[in-house]
Amino acid sequence: MELSLRPLRRADFALLASWLGAPHVARWWDTRCDPEFLEEKYGPRIDETEPTRVAVVEVDGEPVGIFQWCPAPDYAWWPTQLGLA
User: What whole-number distance in Å separates Cα of residue 20 and Cα of residue 29?
Assistant: First the structure.
């Protein structure tokens, strides 16, 4: 089994929408997954105009999910928003 990451592309939006709309994901994903929303949320990440990076996780060349990471200093407000000290 080979695990790999590749950058998310706009061509992945239909696949991403299907993952986000799947019942087992949708119960945790509390927002839209239409093309306009995906462009608004993920377009800047693809274009690298915001610090969050998103990759498609592939197993043996087949996409199975996404992985994203954020530089903590760029999101210093996040722990407070979550109610963490």
Answer: 7
Query: DSSP labels for 14-28?
Result: HHHHHHHHSHHHHTT
Residue type for position 29: W
- Which among 72, 11, 58 has a CA at the least distance from the CA of 38? 11
For residue 29, give the 3-state DSSP assignment: coil
Stated pTM of the model: 0.82
Instruction: Assess contact for 68 and 82: CB atoms under 8 A.
Output: no
Could you list the beta-strand ranges (E) of the chain: 3-7, 53-59, 62-69
Question: What are 47-57's pLDDT values in tens digits?
Answer: 999 999 999 99
CATH architecture of the domain with residue range 3-81: 3-Layer(aba) Sandwich (3.40)
